[in-house]
Design goal:
Elements (H helix, E strand, L loop, with lengths): L24 E4 L5 E4 L11 H4 L29 E4 L2 E3 L4 H15 L6 E2 L4 E3 L4 E4 L3 H12 L8 E9 L5 E10 L1 H17 L12 E8 L3 H4 L2 H8 L1
Helix pairs in contact: 3-4
Length: 235
């Protein structure tokens, strides 16, 4: 789930400044009587520039700077109040996995130098979907309720495979699951039921469960598939 953005709120309305203007003032006069003094001309203090420009950014659409996130392209436009959401199983790396990664990635980079290692490793159980902020807690609770009694299982991911996202804007080198596929399908079935409850997109019909090792911007299947893929698999 994505991190909470900072949201600035502009003032809902200014105070009635007329109330702050000078009005009739009563002052002691000769003979113990009160006399009314004419109001002084009102003079408003200048508003500092820092205050005038405080909330300008809150009225503008967030800038989609691709350089800040490795050149990745949004799969859907940003909209205030929407949260990009993704259900996955985190994969905790061991020494053998890291040794394999150290061997595979440099070889793949000889074909596609712009490949970079994933920052974290996981197996996806859903597509990226959009949640409204007030859906987050009930959505998470619904997932917990369905997963609470699901038994643990072992799986193996040892087949190198090349993947792209649906828009073909990113390419991934991954390890495909070769055992445990049926159990992952059962997990996805439970996740899909929650998605349907919230009228969200369910997972792919025939998913290839995998752990992504590295990625790059663009469609790099042509240089990675074929000879490179055979060499990676043999390695």
């Amino acid at each position: 789930m994505s991190a909470a953005p900072l949201v600035g709120y502009s003032s809902s309305g200014s105070e009635d400044e007329d109330e702050a203007e000078a009005g009739a003032q009563a002052r002691p006069g000769t003979g113990g009587c009160w006399r009314t003094q004419s109001p002084l001309p009102s003079q408003r203090l200048p508003v500092p520039d820092s205050v005038l420009h405080m909330f300008l950014d809150t009225e503008e659409e967030p800038e989609d700077d691709r350089e800040k996130h490795g050149g990745r392209v949004r799969t859907f436009p940003h909209e205030r109040g929407n949260w990009a959401t993704h259900v996955y199983v985190p994969y905790e790396t061991g020494e053998e996995f890291l040794d394999l990664l150290d061997m595979l990635l440099p070889h793949a980079q000889t074909y596609v130098p712009r490949l970079v290692q994933m920052e974290a490793f996981h197996l996806s159980l859903s597509q990226s979907v959009v949640l409204r902020h007030h859906w987050i807690l009930p959505f998470v609770q619904a997932l917990k309720d369905r997963m609470a009694t699901f038994p643990r299982f072992f799986f193996t991911a040892n087949r190198v495979k090349i993947y792209t996202n649906q828009e073909k804007t990113r390419t991934f080198v991954g390890l495909e699951v070769t055992s445990g596929h049926a159990q992952f399908l059962d997990l996805v079935s439970e996740v899909d039921r929650v998605m349907e409850e919230f009228d969200l997109t369910t997972f792919y019909q025939d998913p290839s469960f995998h752990v992504s090792l590295a990625w790059c911007v663009g469609d790099a299947r042509l240089p990675l598939e074929g000879r490179c893929l055979r060499e990676l698999q043999l390695g």
